[in-house]
Amino acid sequence: MRITEAARRLGMSPRMLRYREALGLLPPVREQGAHRRFGEEELAAVAQGVELEKRFDVSPAELAFALRVLSEPAAAQAVRELGIRIGRLQAPRRALDFEKEKALRLLRTSDRSTASNPDVSDR
């Protein structure tokens, strides 16, 4: 079906559907150079995007950026760095820090078991 019919079935204007296409929120056109034709799969994808926008109270542009972050490692890294800087994300722990914390936990567990079992401390 053409864009006018697809937009009518989705309850939006053709302009809004073109906007979503420009943002990358529609599946790619199957044939290069062909006019977009909408089938049930394309309608379902648009409807799913609209549902996500409503559920998470985000705009189509925000949803498109979220998809970009998920699909482009450089964008994901930049957003992660900002999240760490502003305190919304924790910095990843280095392997050495993890091993140090693990060793300290094991020592504390060992100290408690030794204190509760006096026979162990005599050895």
TrEMBL record:
CDD domains: HTH_MerR-SF. Signal peptide: none annotated. Residues 1-48 form the HTH merR-type domain. Gene3D superfamilies: 1.10.1660.10. SUPFAM superfamilies: Putative DNA-binding domain. It comes from the Bacteria. This is HTH merR-type domain-containing protein.
